[in-house]
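writing this on my phone so excuse typos. first protein, seq and then structure
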Amino acid sequence: MDSISAQSSPIAKLIPDELEAPPLTLRQLAWRRFRRHKLAVFGGITLILLVIYSFGGSLFVSEKYANYTDTTIRLSAPSSEHPFGTDTVGRDCLARTIYGGQISILIGLAAVTIETLLGILVGALAGYYGGLIDNILMRITEAMLNIPELFLLIVMAKNFGGKIPNITFLGREFSGSVIVIIVIIGLTSWMYLARIVRAEFLSITENDFILAARATGTSNFQIIFQHILPNSIAPIVVSATLGVANAILSEAYVSFLGLGVQPPTATWGNMLDQANNYLESAPWLWFFPGSLILLIVLSINFLGDGLRDALDPRSRAV
């Protein structure tokens, strides 16, 4: 009788697989947290669509067409033939936003690569070795933080922007100012990441597994890059993601002032500069590139917020 009642109880009816389900891995937990962040999912989808628009659009529209001028149709309003209208010299704005988006995104990615490498190097050395090295590197970092980044970017872009000739890469001709903007943004935006990495290294260095690695004779290089850095990757990924948006905005700032990427290379930023005198008479000149900048910056920020929550090891939300 007891065996029959035990078999009919709710506990006995539970599926064994549910009771013995394996625990989720860190990657599965991170993905589950990320999916619950609706704005992050929206940002990720929007970012993918913008990348497809910028790089996939070149399969249907040639760069020659994007740079083709026809003054007979200058400042034409959006139409079926020119969905985004034409600019002051008759170039198709839709085609210009496609190729301008490529440069804006590439500038963001390349600048963040420089920023991330410098930030990791400075932060890792300061946090791991401490002492005199930490003091010197952090004083340099604080000195850089006290210099207005945008002001420094404008001054350096003005002084070096026109001194590098055009370059050809992957069959495309780029203004030499692209390299200048990438290097300047990368060299003036690593400080916050360096402080984040330093804090992570200071925290992880005192853990038992690091002390054990030192006791077994593991080299400092291996400890830094094989033990500590992989455990600090979450804040680095988040910072790098948000850094792409900041780099795109910084390029748009200086290009809007006429000191950024120079023609014939198009970016969303210098398209806004060309629309400066036609804000009311030809609003499509600023509306479309401005909307694309807004969308990509918002999507990257939403994505960064979602990654921060998903990769936070202290998060308990599943």
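second protein below, same order as before
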Amino acid sequence: MSSGIREIAAKKTMRVAGLMSGTSVDGVDVAVVDITRQKVSLLAFEVFSYPNALRREILSLCNIDSATLDNICHYNFVLGEIFADAIIKLCSQSGIPLQSIDLVGSHGQTIYHNPQGRRYGKTTIRSTLQIGEPSVIAQRTGITTVADFRPRDMAAGGEGAPLVPYADYILFGHNRSSRAVQNIGGIANVTFLPRCCKQDDIVAFDTGPGNMVIDSVIRLISNGRRRFDSGGKMAAQGTVNKRLLDEMLRHPFLRRYPPKSSGREEFGISFANHIFKQAAEKGIADSDLVATVTAFTAKSIARAYHQFLPALPDEVILCGGGSRNNTLVEMLRSELFDAKMLTTDDFGISVDAKEAVSFAVLAWATITGLTNNVPGVTGAERPVVMGKIIPA
């Protein structure tokens, strides 16, 4: 370990910038936090939206039919520049000196994730690929950068996802209440923290679709003019089609036991196109279709709780863009009526900032040498320290 990294690791209070670009590919989330062993304090947060042309290029990299080797190589470095620029911009507009930041934690942009693996000889090899070159981030900002968290867990036999349960444990563990931290991004994932939770007690997995199917259907209905159902307004105008909902709920991923993780491979544009075609053939109105796919997300989350959690939580803490979809939240509340419904805003962390904050926490653990995967969640053989360190 270099002397510079040792100096960072020895700090009682570490200032860390967390970076996240999710499956919805809306933009880069940047959070700056101060971290001690007792507390995580959010200092600043911003979302820097991608230009439409760049967003289309990134989405094309997530599709095996349109991704090309030269574009993967090119946009890996393009995103490195954009991530670095986002940190610099946030510091400038929030008055935080760039040089006061000790560390960057970057999830990158997942363009392909294959936790089931492929055969190579007599072995099944799991793989994943995140772009957003961390060497560029470190070079442009002058800040030591930790990135590429998934591969170490996968090398240890895990699925490399979900990644944030360790951060959820640090941020939301409680002695008197059991909590489910429910992220609703493109994909939805839950972290269950029983009362007096220890790291080995964490249960977490992807529950299935979050906003991904809803967003895709909105784009199909509007011929690309709209990207999401703002506040769930269109879903609120429709009626759920039970027959189509029941068909979607038979998706094999939803029945699979954890550990499990999901992405565009299961619930991306191919799935949305199929549902859109089914709705057209059945004469389902647009608002009814949006209501139905919104109910699909709510039902799949609630069913996962009933099927795979050791007990239903006392509190559900929502985060991610889906927590701003009022219709989705009300559907989820009606499914889990015994639980108190909260958001991370109630704990001083914006629902939009929570994932970026989580990668700041993961990077803090990496640099201090703490294991930050949860083998009982990912299926890894043992606890490992995830993340690759790029010195400044």
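The chain has a mean pLDDT of 95. thats all i got for now
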